[in-house]
Amino acid sequence: MSSSVAAAVSPTRQALRRARKDRSARLGAVLVVLLVLVAAAAPLLVKLSGQDPYTYHLDLLDPARGNAPKGALGGVSSDHWFGVEPLTGRDLFSIVVLGLRTSLTIAIVVTLVTSVVGTLIGISAAYFGGWYDAVASRVFDFLFGFPQLVFMIALGIIVPAGFPRWLLLILVLSVFGWASLARLIRNQARSLVAREFVEAARSVGSSGWHVITRELLPNLLGPVLVIATLAIPGYIGAEAALSFLGVGVPPPTPSLGRSISDSIAWVYTGADPWFLFFPGVALFVAVLGFTLLGDGVRDAFDVRLRRTT
Amino acid sequence: MKHLTRAVAVAAALALAAAACNANDKSASGGSTAAAEQGGTWHVLTTSKEVNLDPAKSQNLGISTIHLVLRGLTSWKTEEGKGAQLVPDLATDTGQVSDGGKTWTYKLKPGLKYPDGSPIVAADIKYGIERSFAPELSGGLGYHKSLLVGGDKYTGPYKGGDLASVQTPDDTTLVFKLNKPFGDWPWIVSMPAFAPVPKKADTDPAHYGEKPVASGPYQVKSLAPGSKLELERNPGWDKSTDQARTGLPDSIVFEMGLQPDVVNQRLIADAGDDKFAATTGTSVPAALIPTVTGNPAVKARVATSSSGALQYLAMNTKRPALSNPEVRKAIQFAVDKQAVQVAEGGPEFGGELATTLITPGIDGFNKFDLFPAPPQGDPEKAKQMLAAAGVSNLTLTIVADNSTATGLPVAQAIQQGLKRAGITVKLLPGLDSESLTDLITGNKPDFDLTVSNWLPDFPSALGNIQPLFASSEIGNGGYNISRYSNPAVDSAIAAATAESDLGKAAGMWSAVDKQIMQDSPVVPLIYARNAFLHGSKVQNFYLSAYPPYPNQLIVGLSK
Q1: B249: left (phi over 0), alpha (psi -120 to 50) or beta
Q2: From the UniProt record, which GO molecular function terms apply (chain B) (predicted)?
Q3: Which among A227, B13, B335, B521 has the fewest CB atoms less than 10 Å away?
């Protein structure tokens, strides 16, 4: 590749080109596209299977085995593609795809919120400096040192029962999520603020808003994209963890974390390990897909960390 | 009175469980065939973090822990397959009644002693009763507090002097003056508050329960708060004076604060000292049923009760949507009792479907079904009844306890059942046992439906009916959760309560049961069974219809 060609291509495009060559990133991208499609089309898929996640099928349970599903693989059949839930007989396929939809929606919304808030606060702290920067930095430190999970569980218990849980999850995860991104962006932006092109823009009288959006933001898009992509699996996991602990979306709304929590006793007793398998695999694939993609994006943008292969 | 939260919660303990799975196969012999012998150490595995031995603060049933250490005027005797019988304990009989049912007289047996050899006297029992009135020692079973004359104003011996309605003419005689006739009084005097407390030993009332002066076969040897309580023999106890207790093991150790999973897995594994262990309150969860039923040796070590607490769906009759009895009757048909039963572990471990308010094993239980339907309900009939009542698009909220293993699953079973009849039920979780109890028994009952469990504190239909359906029990912490108020029922309850001929009273209670069900304030769901595991060397361990808990006073160990 000659230097003239490279010079004609923007850094973002270079990065995307690198990402395309990365095999694990490609796998990640395929998985993510697949997951997003499944999540988006979940109600359609459920309709296609002719089931819903709420109707009980007690006739599919075996009373002699503690009402675990009858049949192999947790009751897999042409009607119930992933089998049924023990004790209720609810369709596990519906629960898994709708649970995936809940998890992904919450994770992506939280990522969007934290990215926007974190970027704005990070850049503005770097640009304006002074007491504003000092206060913002202490807030970052405070949120870092905060026992988040314990606080989230406590909040989940004290918030009135009428408050929508999915909104609470988004709020709580967002409030604690933006600080890490904001701190990274602030540090990156501080080094940019001292650069000549920013000085130049300031000296010709550009407004602060203009400098932030036109000069700083385009140069920080790479790190933001990397951090955001890598944050999604974290939020998927956090949502599942909170549901696992019983402070996520309320039943009977499907949730991967809650299904996994419910399944544990059925796994170690050997009564119905398939109850863990399907939700567990869905969660695993979701986290894996976004992590691979995130790693690829990071490698593509962050030249210093790029693998030498 | 006991509002139950079934302690069958399942927590994540994978590593431990894996180890226990392997151990399952090894447990060869089991079953309760060998005879109980004198001696040994019985281990009780419990999830609770506190074993309360203060008679004023205890809610123990007549066969439970506190009665190993303390005796009352009367006591409970159980026989496998039968209900609990009342026998004299410190007293020579179960009570002599006079003054139209308002005066009860008891004589103490001769030769009763404390561990130090000093005699148990009537004044000590009077002092124990007086202590239970002290506000700082509240929380115990308190039926006597509203029955003894002057009890409503008395504030305990520390500030209020003595209680004139408990009289001790001499060291062996006790006379109780009641403010109304009360036929079940002999059961009341079996309760913890009627245990002797020597006044001179009560120097630190708040901590008296850590080492109470023993009158039963055991006394406290050591207590490690939150983890372990050790009982040893009481040298002052004489077996010949006690019909209710066998006092077989030399010592009893309570291992406290265990996870329910740990309790069940250890008892299934049946290894080492756990052969001599049992649980007295941790039921077998549904997921363990295949493990238990798949292994005859383990299954032989599960004690199940034929009945137990009534699990019921309470309908808040004060809410506009549910004030119409026809709507409440339609819900009787819409509910899917079978789904509830499955969520609780099926017929064998969860319990039989219920149609009455009085539970089997209690005098006055008389099986009837005013709303006959298949186990899964009759949603079509419910729809027709709602249409006839002119109700459409019914939307209700159900509040549920999310801190127990079956709280939310049962609420969901109700939700899907009513959905079939076109009733939308919104599930409000986010409530633990305490906040749920505050909501449903408090004065701002902002809910339509909730599922609750109720076990009487003594085997009388009074305990089934009065706390849940008397209009005096609405709000202020009372358990009339459905806020049911019917003057005719109130007077029928009062009449049955006053009846001292217990056979006649049973018939009256049975009629009240039917009378209430005609108004349909609750949907009886199941007679909730208990199923408890015990080690292979634990004998005399069985659960009755009532009480559905093991009689700890007679448990013995085999070699």
Answers
A1: beta
A2: peptide transmembrane transporter activity
A3: B13
